[in-house]
Amino acid sequence: MTAQSNRWFWFASPQTFFPLAATIARAAAVLAVLFGVAGLYVGLFVAPTDATQGEAYRIIFIHVPAAWMSMFLYVLMAFWAAIGLAMNTRLSALMARALAPTGALFTFIALWTGSFWGKPTWGTWWVWDARLTSELILLFLYFGFMALQASIDEPRRADRAGAVLALVGVVNVPIIYFSVQWWNTLHQGASVSLTKSPSMAATMLLGMLLMALSFWMYSIAVAMVRVRCLIREDHE
Amino acid sequence: MSNFFAMGGYGLYVWGAYGVTFALLALEIILLLKRKHETKT
């Protein structure tokens, strides 16, 4: 193995990553608060009232970022699980474990806030359409991953089993994302698209992006603190 | 100020969404810090 690839694997060791994780957690926590305060200010005070939905639309500032995080964290969790499965690096499996509860939390928040948005705008808390159902399946995938790992005593076996589940479940993420195009649904289309100019006021978009950055930094901070707990518990 | 909390009649929905979101984030932080404290000792 060359010196170059050694450097790549340097932080793959839990012991060397342990102090770095604390530094990252602190920085991310500070950024999460700053972005969160700015995002809430823009979302609740600066962004104009929506022409058709009135003030109810302001749920978008937590709903959409939470839904993005729920999918992004699942892909990231599956990615680390896959690396752990392929390379047998202990830290990768611990990263996957550290991300799961926060991913499940954001999935629940996306469903909850969606429900509270659906009631005043659609007239119902819940419909069994493709977008909502696939997001609910995502929540069960997170629960399944955590339950499976918790039910197997031998850590390496638990990580391998969890990785297989996480990888199979990844199929669900594009289904969630494209569900509003593939099936007829009450749910509106993508709020932000890379190919089209934004269909909303610039301040609405800004508030949403700030909240997304805040949730992103929050997830990093929480995952880093959790991975430190897992590294410690791993050595007990 | 009361106008702000009324959210144009959608207060229950808007604050129901925001309140539960931030309560859950706070709960995760509390549980995690508790776990961190327990793993240290």
Q: What report would you give on this structure?
A:
The complex is a heterodimer of chains A (about 240) and B (about 40). The relative contact order of chain A is 0.19. The two termini of chain A are about 30 Å apart. Chain A has helices at about 5-10, 15-45, 60-85, 90-120, 130-150, 155-170, 170-180, 200-235. Chain A is about 80% helix and about 0% strand. Chain A has about 240 residues and is mainly alpha-helical. Chain B contains two helices and no strands. Chain B is rod-shaped and about 50 Å long. In chain B, about 20% of the residues are buried. Classes of the chains: A mainly alpha (about 240), B mainly alpha (about 40). The interface of A and B includes residues 58, 62, 66, 108 and 113 of A.
Quick recap of the structure?
Chain A contains eight helices and no strands. The termini of chain B are far apart.
Number of strands of chain B: 0
Average pLDDT for all residues of chain A: 91
Helix content of chain B: over 70%
Question: What shape does the CA trace of chain A take?
Answer: globular
Tell me the layout of helices and strands.
The complex is a heterodimer of chains A (236) and B (41).
Chain A: H1 3-10, H2 14-46, H3 60-87, H4 90-122, H5 130-151, H6 155-169, H7 172-182, H8 202-234
Helix pairs in contact in A: 2-8, 3-4, 3-6, 3-8, 4-5, 4-8, 5-6, 5-7
Chain B: H1 2-6, H2 11-40
What attributes does this structure have?
A: 236 residues; mainly alpha; 78% helix; 0% strand; B: mainly alpha
